[in-house]
Amino acid sequence: MKMTKMVNSAQVERDWIVLDAEGKTFGRLVTEIATYLRGKHKPYFTPHVDCGDHVIVINASKVKFSGANKLEDKQYHRHSGYFGSVKSEKLGELVQKNPEKLFKLATRGMLPKTKLGRAMLKKLRVYAGSEHPHTAQVKAKEN
């Protein structure tokens, strides 16, 4: 009888994946990031175990967006809970000032909304430029 293999967190092998965002479409790149963080690209994917890899995104400020006016029209809102404290930022401002926050916001929506999802999101590192301090962890292969 064949049984489905369920891995636990001690059996998971984690890799470091480097993704270059220059010229890639934002939504498709974030979907790829979420797949790597979740571990769905591995043959032993288990939904209740964090079996994803570490993901490094470089050149985050050079990502491409679909839509002609999306950089001026799309807004991200945040609210502290007090009356009248809604603050908004346009997508174009967020890409220039803080692309790390933009990638984390978009990726968070594609991960589980539990402790497991928060643990997966901690393995995402985003850098606006082409340099990153994780060269010792990354093997010779880069995507």
TrEMBL record:
GO CC, alphabetical: cytosolic large ribosomal subunit
Keyword Magnesium listed: no
A molecular function (GO) term: mRNA binding
Keywords, in A-Z order: Ribonucleoprotein, Ribosomal protein
Pfam families: Ribosomal_L13
Annotated signal peptide: none
InterPro entries linked to this entry: Ribosomal_uL13 (IPR005822), Ribosomal_uL13_bac-type (IPR005823), Ribosomal_uL13_sf (IPR036899)
Single biological process term from Gene Ontology: negative regulation of translation
Known function: This protein is one of the early assembly proteins of the 50S ribosomal subunit, although it is not seen to bind rRNA by itself. It is important during the early stages of 50S assembly.
Subunit structure: Part of the 50S ribosomal subunit.
Family: Belongs to the universal ribosomal protein uL13 family.
NCBIfam families: rplM_bact
Name of protein: Large ribosomal subunit protein uL13
Organism: Hydrogenimonas thermophila
Taxonomic path: Bacteria, Pseudomonadati, Campylobacterota, Epsilonproteobacteria, Campylobacterales
